[in-house]
Amino acid sequence: RVTLVDPAFEKYAGIEKILLFVDYEKAANSGSITRVTDEIRQQEWYRTACSRYSSFWTSYHYIDSYNKEKVSLALVRKMPMSEPDRQAVIMVIISDSFLTSRVENGNFSVHMAVNQEPVFFSTDPSVVQAYHGLSIDYEKVSFKADETLKVNGKRSMVSVASLKPAQSSYTQIYIAAVDGAAYQRIGRNLWHL
């Protein structure tokens, strides 16, 4: 089924899908258009979008086409409507494959989260717990820290930093890199001095 937003997929590999949530009883669920339900109205991202016109990033939880639960990074924004009692929210979901191609590295794993939400992206899900073990100061506008944590039984070097996306004053994205072999490499290098 072709919709007005489908051509975006041909030009931007980073977009997994674009959804439009319409709070109008006569709207039909069709392709990328979803009629807002009571369940959607209760979602934090939807309530936040309806309360302002500025865009923001969030973790979006959904069931994918393989019937598996998925969490992805999404850009959300309220859309202006001609009738003031109606709401519409557009959501651009970022492709995990695109993120992986940009950050994958054989030496360390990368994990990302929005604000204090759960991790939405991980190059190695077996070490996601490393992110949850970090001491992150969410009150700081810009945050960076390096820590040593035990991950899967190995002493690992973990570096985390915050990123404030452009045009999104309410969002911080936290990126953590976990290197389980860093101390082994350091030890080998010191041995050869």
Query: Which strand order do you get reading across the main beta sheet?
Result: 2-1-5-4-3
String of helices and strands: HEEHHEEEHEEHEEEH
Strand content: 35-45%
Query: How is the main sheet built?
Result: 5 strands, mixed
Detail the topology: elements first, then pairings:
Layout: H1 7-11, E1 15-23, E2 33-35, H2 38-41, H3 44-50, E3 56-63, E4 69-79, E5 87-94, H4 96-103, E6 109-114, E7 119-122, H5 128-132, E8 144-151, E9 154-163, E10 173-179, H6 182-191
Parallel strand pairs: 1-2
Antiparallel strand pairs: 1-5, 3-4, 4-5, 6-7, 6-10, 8-9, 9-10
Note down, in words, how this protein is organized:
It contains six helices and ten strands; from the N terminus they run αββααβββαββαβββα. The model has no long low-confidence stretch (mean pLDDT 81). By secondary structure, it is of the alpha+beta class. The protein has helices at residues 7-11, 38-41, 44-50, 96-103, 128-132, 182-191; strands spanning 15-23, 33-35, 56-63, 69-79, 87-94, 109-114, 119-122, 144-151, 154-163, 173-179. A five-stranded mixed β-sheet has the order 2-1-5-4-3. The chain has a five-stranded antiparallel β-sheet with strand order 7-6-10-9-8. The radius of gyration is 20 Å and the shape is elongated.
Features:
38% strand; 5-stranded antiparallel beta sheet; 5-stranded mixed beta sheet; 20% helix; alpha+beta; 6 helices; 193 residues; elongated
Quick gist of this model?
It contains six helices and ten strands, in the order H-E-E-H-H-E-E-E-H-E-E-H-E-E-E-H. With 193 residues, it is α+β, with helices and mostly antiparallel strands.
